Amino acid sequence: MYIHFHQEDYLVDGLKVKGFEIVNLQRKDYLMQEGAGVTDLIIIAKKRS
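RE: above sequence
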C-alpha cells in the first residue's frame, strides 16, 4: 500500500491554479489499531466553467 502525505495549502493551491473551485474541505480523525492518531483530509472540488 502506498501512502502520500501532502499539505492542505499545496493541494488547494494546485486545484485553484488548474481551474477548480473548492466546494467542501473537511478533516476526519481516526485512531489506528496501534494507538496512533491519523487525520484524513477530504477535498471536494468542481471545475469552473
